[in-house]
């Protein structure tokens, strides 16, 4: 059976039903009706795939005016996937949840709108697929420092992470202008 667990109330960890046989495996990584029953009611409009090498950290990203809920799946490899609640006024503001997603447990993470998202690559390479509930808009993207000292994400680091130039410039949640953060009352 398709199973789920909730974290910070709205983050959903999904364990799909995996059919293994002599050829390999099969699973449904999204099914509108079944995922609606799990509480994933948004409409996905964009799918993305990225490949990253070991020790890469991408994050912590969000869009403000075009917020994206995301459904994360690891096609190949292993990552530590993290979401932070950055909705001003939320009872869990500033709290994070992280878990390992890999190509053996096939777990998926659903991250609602209003959360910042990022991941760290544990395997030699990791191929990630994620569905998004709104389109990418490069004028609306923001980032929070991966190692924000107030948030204290417990990354299972193997090295000093490999970051994009953009992510190396991200600032802490405390230093971000409040007008650049989503509001719990609007998202809810
Ligand atoms: C995210 C994205 C990027 N791009 C382009 C912009 C840029 O030239 C190139 C690489 O972009 P980035 O460096 O922003 O890619 P990346 O650091 O992988 O960004 C992603 O990180 C993870 C953690 C998320 O949660 C995603 O929503 C997204 O923000 O791809 C698109 O064309 N469409 C997209 O949807």
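Sequence proposed for the structure above (188 residues):
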């Amino acid at each position: 059976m398709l199973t789920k667990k909730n974290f910070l109330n709205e983050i959903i960890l999904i364990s799909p039903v995996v059919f293994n046989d002599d050829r390999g495996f099969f699973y449904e990584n999204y099914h509108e009706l079944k995922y609606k029953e799990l509480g994933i009611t948004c409409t996905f409009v964009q799918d993305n795939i990225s490949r990253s090498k070991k020790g890469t950290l991408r994050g912590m990203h969000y869009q403000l005016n075009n917020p994206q809920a995301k459904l994360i799946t690891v096609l190949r490899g292993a990552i530590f996937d993290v979401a932070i609640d950055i909705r001003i006024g939320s009872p869990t503001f500033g709290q994070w949840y992280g878990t390992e997603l890999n190509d053996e447990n096939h777990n998926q993470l659903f991250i609602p709108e209003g959360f910042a998202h990022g991941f760290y690559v544990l395997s030699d390479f990791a191929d990630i697929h994620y569905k998004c509930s709104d389109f990418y808009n490069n004028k609306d993207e923001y980032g929070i420092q991966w190692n924000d000292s107030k948030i204290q994400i417990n990354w299972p680091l193997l090295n000093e992470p490999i970051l994009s130039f953009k992510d190396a410039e991200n600032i802490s949640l405390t230093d971000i202008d409040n007008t650049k953060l989503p509001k719990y009352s609007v998202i809810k």
